[in-house]
Design a protein that fits this description.
- The protein has 205 residues and is mainly alpha-helical.
- Helix content is 69%, strand content 0%.
- It has ten helices and no strands.
- Helix 4 packs parallel to helix 7 and helix 5 runs antiparallel to helix 10.
- The longest helix is centred in the middle third of the chain and has 25 residues.
- The chain is elongated.
Amino acid sequence: MARGRSPGYDDQREAIRAGAAQLFASRGYPATSMNEVADACGMSKPSLYHYFRDKDALLASIAEDHVSRLEAVVEAVQKESLDPKAHLYRLINRFVEEYAGAQHAHRVLTEDVRFLGEEDRERILEGQRRVVAAFAQVIVALRPELGEAQLAKPLTMLLFGMINWMFTWLKQDGNLTHEAMAPIVADLFFGGYPAVQLPAIAAGA
């Protein structure tokens, strides 16, 4: 009979992901060993392997868990049945809020997924694509001609450019917080997207 999981198994996995994400974010995935992860988590290396079969599995779990949380945010906002502008404003605020508590995992997602094998990498990237598609869909609802000009996804990526790399310059102990920056990001986007000119070919010129 297979041995059942202990009551705290999932909590321990989450603690390991958090500790490993901090190490990967600060030292880089290739430079971090499983011995170092075990030490940081206060456990033996054999115990660590009870939760993750190897370092790749640990990296995949960190990235996939982070993307799953982002997808959950998308789903939760969709259930609020907001008008398109309020919907996108809510998405931006919720994503900045989510990133504030997951800066290490987000850095791992943006910088280290490339080290994974093709199957794991593609599974995680597919989750990211679903998130991008959800944002793009709302942008199209705001301004349909952007979808016809195939600009919804590029504009979504520009928006994510503001959100995704905030961790590289926003100091945790600085005067500005993620909470303060969220409406600023939203205001910048809402102030800019209406002024976007369609390319001549898309406009039928």
